[in-house]
Amino acid sequence: MCGIVAYVGHRQAHEVIIKGLKRLEYRGYDSAGIALLNGGLNVYKKKGKVSELEEFVKGKNLNSTIGIGHTRWATHGEPNDVNAHPHYSSTGKLAIIHNGIIENYSSLKQELINKGHTFKSETDTEVFIHFIEDIKEKENCSLDEAVRLALTKVVGAYAIVIMSLEDPDLLVAARKGSPLVVGVGKDEFFLASDATPIIEYTNEVVYLNDQEIAVVNDGKLSIKNTANLPLSPYIQTIDLELEAIEKGGYEHFMLKEIFEQPRSISDCMRGRLDSKSGRLVLGGLREYVNKLVNADRILIVACGTSWHAGLVAEYFFEEFCRIPVEVEYASEFRYRNPVIREGDVLIAISQSGETADTLAAIEMAKSKGAIIFGVCNVVGSSIPRATHAGAYTHAGPEIGVASTKAFTAQLTVLNMIALIVANKKGTITEQKLHEMLTELENIPAKVAEVLKLNDQIKEISETFKDATNFLYLGRGYNFPVALEGALKLKEISYIHAEGYPAAEMKHGPIALIDEEMPVVFIATQDSSYEKIVSNIQEVKARKGRVIAVVTKGDKHIAKMAEFTIEVPAVHEALMPMVSVIPLQLLSYHIAVMRGCNVDQPRNLAKSVTVE
Ligand code: G6P
What we know:
Elements (H helix, E strand, L loop, with lengths): L2 E6 L4 H11 L7 E7 L3 E7 L2 H8 L8 E7 L14 E2 L5 E9 L2 H10 L9 H16 L3 H9 L4 E9 L2 E10 L4 E4 L4 E4 L11 E4 L4 E6 L2 E6 L4 E2 L4 E2 L15 H7 L1 H9 L3 E2 L4 E2 L8 H5 L3 E6 L1 H18 L3 E5 H4 L10 E7 L5 H12 L3 E6 L5 H5 L2 E4 L12 H21 L4 H22 L2 H11 L4 E6 L3 H16 L2 E6 L16 E5 L6 H13 L3 E7 L3 H6 L2 E5 L8 H18 L18
Parallel strand pairs: 18-19, 18-20, 20-21, 21-22, 23-24, 23-25, 25-26, 26-27
Antiparallel strand pairs: 1-4, 1-10, 2-3, 2-4, 5-6, 6-7, 7-8, 8-12, 9-10, 9-11, 11-15, 12-13, 13-14, 16-17
Helix pairs in contact: 3-4, 4-5, 7-13, 7-14, 9-13, 9-16, 13-14, 13-19, 14-19, 15-19, 16-19
């Protein structure tokens, strides 16, 4: 969370930074700020979105070819102008932007207060920059050395960039646990939380590793680690198109990303799966694939929507690979001393590849000897670098805070992994494997068919836009879809929604049902169809308002439900990739009708890099 951008070169820094901050707003958007060297080290900051900062600085002299900027998701101190970044050091000669948390900030703060420091904000970041300056003065050393010494004393996660009044060509940056990318242009450098603010200027980047310090000075980049060991920058060429991070005519990123799914699912399978030749290859599994084949148990850790993808994968792996699977919230797993045995394999799922709890769960499992696989979307992010093996989802950048195309891409990759394992293990027949590969190849076309129902779903949304509660029910493979549908609705429309296994309704949620209560059933024709039909009747008997996602041609449920949404038939194990689409659209339209900001819902952030 929090987006950071910095620039030094020959361009107007504020133009690069403000544009970059807008691209990073998915990481947080409660306040924003910028520091420039324009006749002094000047900081401009404002509560609210980057557009408010842009308005605020209009007409000011912003002439500077060096600068740092920040868009915030508050951790310490409420979102206001004072707590916004950048923050000054005690003398005002240094300014910092920071993403992450300094855990021992209160003891550092007390030490500094004892020395006479005063603080304007409530942030850990201001303490951090005072601390760095204090070391610089005490040790009479360079800024990068002071940063290095400070980093050996702070506890926590950070990506920081610092600029100095005394050095108009210097930026010092460092990371531990929060991402930071250096863009290398011709006589110019960019620093940012991810590559999106950089790609329109250069596709040459260096991903900093934990405990590394990057110094851009007089047009040169040097990197060392906190142990003071110089390192040679590893410059990578990234393959990211500008159009992939723009709205392309859609009103919102979320809608664009929902509609991109036929393509993103195909992209995810491209070069990896071909039913005709029987090709099914994921290069990133490498030599570790046999660890999965021989696993006694698979642990899946993830958060949010990725956790829901993990739940679907649990059913899939158990059915096709006959390996027991446990799906864990990363945040719970890491703190409860879990039993990890030899023969256990862990799969971490994460769109951003940066979620702090997932990353910490990986480190913990690794320290206990587990082999870790990653399923991530953002190439070069922290989780893929922390795992032994894995596969990218290749869904392209997902910018809307509510995850959509990442979910279906995660399911695609997880299904492919499971089929590879099942094939190697001999728990699937050749014929069944061929059938599943063909079905997977057909998913993009089926998703495209569901997207044609957009207008119908919009109409249904009109009927329910003022509801205060929603219940989502599904069974089997569609149970995690119910959870995901409820999550999507509450995230962006702020309507309270719960997902439940349909049969569990009797044990509690049924008490909520009255003539006001919309109940969304994911009731496609699968092995639990008859059972879910009974659950629909139970809701009807209590006058609940039924919206049912059904298999095309289902006349039976149509007679019972107030609204039916017909999706094409697919193998039940793959149905979540199809049945989730109407739920994404339903939540999108309801949120838009309620006037909510669907791409930047309140209090949420896309990449949760704090615990
Ligand atoms: C945040 C996002 C969710 C996402 C979750 C896990 O809560 O708002 O959309 O599902 O983090 O993120 P990850 O990047 O690890 O999949």
